Amino acid sequence: MGPVAPRILRPEHPTPRPLTGLVEAFELTVEADLDGIEVTGVTLDSSDVEPGDLFAALPGARRHGAEFAAAALEQGAVAVVTDPAGAAMLETGAPVIVLDDPRAALGEISAWVYRTGEDRPRLFGVTGTNGKTSTSFMLEGLLADLGFVTGLSTTAERHVGDLVVTSKLTTPEASELHALLARMREAGVRAAVLEVSAQAIERHRIDGVVFDVVAFTNLSHDHLDDYGSMDAYFDVKAELFTPDRAERGVVCVDTEWGRRIAERSRIPVTTVTSEPGVDADWHVDIWEETPSSTSFTLTGIDGGAVEVQIPFIGRHMAIDAAIAILMLVEDGFEMDAIAEVIDRGMRPTLPGRIERVSGEEGPAVFLDYGHSPDAFVQTLEALRRVTEGRLVMLFGADGDRDATKRADMGRIAAELADAVVVTDFNPRTEDAASIRAQVLGGARAAAGGKPVIESSPEEAAIREALRLAGPGDTVLWAGPGDADYRDVAGVREPFDARAEARRALEEAGWPTEERGERPARDVR
Ligand SMILES: CC(=O)N[C@H]1[C@@H](OP(=O)(O)OP(=O)(O)OC[C@H]2O[C@@H](n3ccc(=O)[nH]c3=O)[C@H](O)[C@@H]2O)O[C@H](CO)[C@@H](O)[C@@H]1O[C@H](C)C(=O)N[C@@H](C)C(=O)N[C@H](CCC(=O)O)C(=O)O
Ligand SMILES: Nc1ncnc2c1ncn2[C@@H]1O[C@H](COP(=O)(O)OP(=O)(O)OP(=O)(O)O)[C@@H](O)[C@H]1O
């Protein structure tokens, strides 16, 4: 099997634009003859160059993109945009546009090249530490049920109508985002939902886009390696709620962070909560939780109400669904029209988020993408409420990512589950055993007499977890979700945790639940 390579979607029939037009539009100075040069695309990655591209040679943490400019030109790039340091590294006869901060201009330039300011789909953006993918999939599902050809950009997948590809980053780089929007326009997409990470806001990935409606799910401990403090992390997220970024917003005020977003927002926002004592425009009241669904009423202060059943477990999933519904309301949809499609049954695909892989007999086994302390709390509490027997938690902490959350993840697992198996999860360039030791430290300190077992690799760990579980028990494997790879020593190798869990279940003599393929979609 070869390496795992996510695909980048671009327009299939781009309209060439003269480079002179770009230079005029942005009042740039270029010392080269630009006559006859036409641009059809933009990329910042030399492995993604197509003939006619403008290659953005950007400074990075590891390399300078200018190191790859010669290769990009050889593959057909027609010009380079870079910073002064990059320009000093270049020896080329091709036109070079020099900007002090080319990353900050990339969104606008890409929007110009791909003409994404014109005739674009309705745009919905979802931010927050957890729940972005879940909310985005549920919103896309509702939009499709309302009759729209939809687009989606998440950590898991990008969709253009029926075409589905896997993603590399949660939010694509600006050049890729505008190419995706142009592809959506070609495909007749009328509404698109995009996950917006903090890194995307800060690193100019969503520049050149103004969302019709944005939403904030929550903020909890994650990414402190990038931001240093929760306040700094919050400040980046809050920027999405400004007129340059969006028209209107929906904010979940279950947490203090949400209340602060609502207060600080410079665009009109509507608020929603699942906490009974909290003031908000909309309330979520859960009235039934089963091993396969959650039912709730969403009630507005003006008296409007809708009853909703989602095919997912947990209060967190109910809040994600409520946010998706309210994003439609904020965009002007009538609640009656939304209620009608909800009544027909919400059946969004949601890969790897609290996804059951086991059958009716034997232990229930769920795969979940959660990889932060709050995600663990939400998922374990939800599963506890629908589990008669014991709850076994299998997980690892990812390498080259916020190490300060590892012991906490161990502690939460030991406190909320009955048995814990600590394994590996994308160690990347770190030593896997030392990551496990940090997680085990937190788990063992909180475990009391509960079993805490170390098991590596993941293939052995899921079998270990199943040995601890029987009928009536639940095994939660948190971390990999729907990912089709694992990153070991900086190399992505194919790994499908859902398939591995099914194999382990079958070996143990238990039936599994195959999710139906999605025949209507072109999955690549
Ligand atoms: C911190 C960060 O976001 N880094 C991203 C950034 O890296 P960088 O700017 O430091 O780039 P670099 O590797 O030094 O290379 C410099 C330049 O040379 C180019 N290059 C490099 C090699 C080559 O062969 N050819 C080439 O053209 C690169 O495209 C880049 O423009 O640009 C790269 C190219 O797009 C990204 O792959 C890389 O994401 C890294 C892998 C990453 O893991 N980012 C994470 C932190 C991230 O963004 N996560 C959020 C989601 C978080 C969440 O909510 O969970 C996301 O939106 O995905
Ligand atoms: N509203 C929520 N509050 C807290 N945790 C949640 C919420 N929704 C989902 N989660 C948990 O977070 C995990 C990740 O969910 P999801 O993929 O939807 O979030 P995300 O924000 O897209 O994550 P990432 O940024 O890492 O892609 C879920 O598997 C679940 O464990």
Number of distinct helices: 17
Q: Classify the beta-strand content into a percent band.
A: 15-25%
Total strands: 26
Gross morphology: globular
Quick check: average pLDDT? 93
Write the CATH architecture name of the largest domain. Answer: 3-Layer(aba) Sandwich
Q: Between the first and last Cα atoms, what is the distance in angstroms?
A: 15 Å
The assigned structural class equals alpha/beta
Name every ligand kind in the structure. Answer: ligand UAG, adenosine-5'-triphosphate
The fourth-level CATH homologous superfamily of the largest domain is: Mur-like, catalytic domain
Low-confidence stretches: 1-5, 516-524
User: What is the strand arrangement across the widest sheet?
Assistant: 17-16-15-14-13-12-7-11-8-9-10-26
Highest-level CATH class of the largest domain: Alpha Beta
Helical content stands at 25-40%
Gyration radius, in Å: 24 Å
- Note the main sheet: 12 strands, mixed
The CATH topology annotation of the largest domain reads as UDP-N-acetylmuramoyl-L-alanine:D-glutamate ligase
How many structural domains does the protein architecture include?
Answer: 3
Main location: cytoplasm
GO molecular function: ATP binding; magnesium ion binding; tetrahydrofolylpolyglutamate synthase activity
Protein name: UDP-N-acetylmuramyl-tripeptide synthetase
Organism: Agrococcus pavilionensis RW1
